[in-house]
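Can anyone check this?
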Amino acid sequence: MNSNLKAKELLEEYKPFIEKPNKLWITKALILSAIICFGIYVLILQVIEGHIITGMRDNVVWGVYIVNFVFVLGLSYAGALIAGIFHLGRVEWAKPLQRILKLITLFSLIIGPIYILLCLGRPDRLLYLFIHPRLQSPIIWDVIAIVTDMIFCIAYLYFTYIKDFALLRDNAPHLNMYNWRKRMYKFLALGYQNTPEQSKLLNQSLDIMAAIIIPTSIVAYSLLAWLFGMNLRPGWHSSIFGPFFVLSAVYSGIALLIIIMWIYRKQYKMEKTFTDNHFMYLGFSLIILSLFYGYFSFSQYITDWYNIQKTTELFWDKYLDFSQYGIIFTLSALFVVFVPLIFIGIPWFRSINSIAAVSLLVLVGLWLKRYLMIVPVLETPYIPIQDIREDWAHYSATWVEWSLSITGIALFILFFLIFSKLAPIVPVSEMAEEKGKNKLIVFYKTKRELS
């Protein structure tokens, strides 16, 4: 009963966020929708004109689209992995963060595979992957992993919403919202009444889903890493790619979580929900991950440098040559390894805003790392190519690719905007239950001291 009252109090606090949209919300949605509509136009143009309007050619068959695909899928698996660990570990301070992590997972799983479709010259043949799959192909492994992970993540996210759907259903008469939303909450709540039996079954279901999602996420992103690692091409053929991919995913997931927290905190005055401690804990996590990432990067590059001639050529002639990719290589190392150590590790620089800024630079650096992993490798053929046009041998993304990349970002933000309006961005019911437990513990401690 006490948790129900606390939940109602918390819902009252978040009520302005979920009621009928105001003019500012509508303006944001329209701007994002306009960007997405322009992206659809660019996509139609690419389908009509073909890949000739992109920078992809026979030599570099993958470009920014695949970079986005690998990067975004890393965010999705990281969200599921971190949320599952927080849930099973009963990390109480992370309660307000778990829904954001699960939403990151879902939206990234929707957007990421779209970038694969943009790479296909014959997207009409995509159905053949499901009709005539070849289990010998690592691409089929990745398709199975993405579909399986999406099913589990949707179920997991829905289970976490049931309590809040029931809370919104019971308090719908006091909320300023459209009638269709009230009917939607009633349907999605599945008759949940917060009885001890229902609560026990739901909590058990969440534990099971979290336990399933953690290994699923690790395996799924490792499969994507093996797509590269099992290739004999110099620069990809490495056994370290699996753990390196998982580490990079967790790193990028925490960085994106910090940025989203910072935006909600600044825009909606959610200092009580996303406290200074949240930023400090996650900021220190970035420091630890930057050290691990630096070690993994050193291990990869020292192996490449000491390896066969082609890998050595890739390392010296591409990564360290400032007329090639030296600038990108340097920025990636600075943003991902050294910036967190300096601006979060040194107390004089450390603040909420600096942690958010470092997180943004970390995301940029990790995206650049994905670019370095794909494009320079494809520009380094097995044997020297003669009498080939320069723009065919080297890759440079066109405005079409950048436009569709920005469209994916706009779609991600729009998803968050819509879901934040449909239900609270934090698990209100679970936070209320935790507050009730904490107050009960304090009450018994005080009573024991008095006696």
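Reply from J.R.: I decoded it. The first helix runs from residue 2 to 18.
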